[in-house]
Amino acid sequence: MSAPAPPRNDRRDAVGALLGQIWDDALDPGYAAAAARRSAKEQSAPERRRRAVGAAVALGLVGVLLAAAAVQTRTARPVVTEQRHQLVQRIHEQTRLNDQLSAAIASTGAEVDRLKSAQLATTAEGEQLASQLEALGVTSGALAVQGPGVRVSLDDAPADSPLVDPTKPELSRVLDRDVAMVVNGLWAAGAEAMSVNGQRLTSLSAIRTAGDAILVDYRPLTRPYLVSAIGGPTLESQFAAGSAGASLRTLHDAYGIRYGIEGVQDLSLSAASGLTLRYATTEGAP
Amino acid sequence: MIAVLGLILGIVLGLVLQPAVPLWAQPYLPIAIVAALDAVFGAVRAAVEGLFDDRVFVISFLANVSVAALIVFLGDQLGVGAQLSTGVVVVLAVRIFSNAAAIRRHLLGA
Question: Any CB–CB contact under 8 A between B87 and chain A?
Answer without folding.
Answer: no
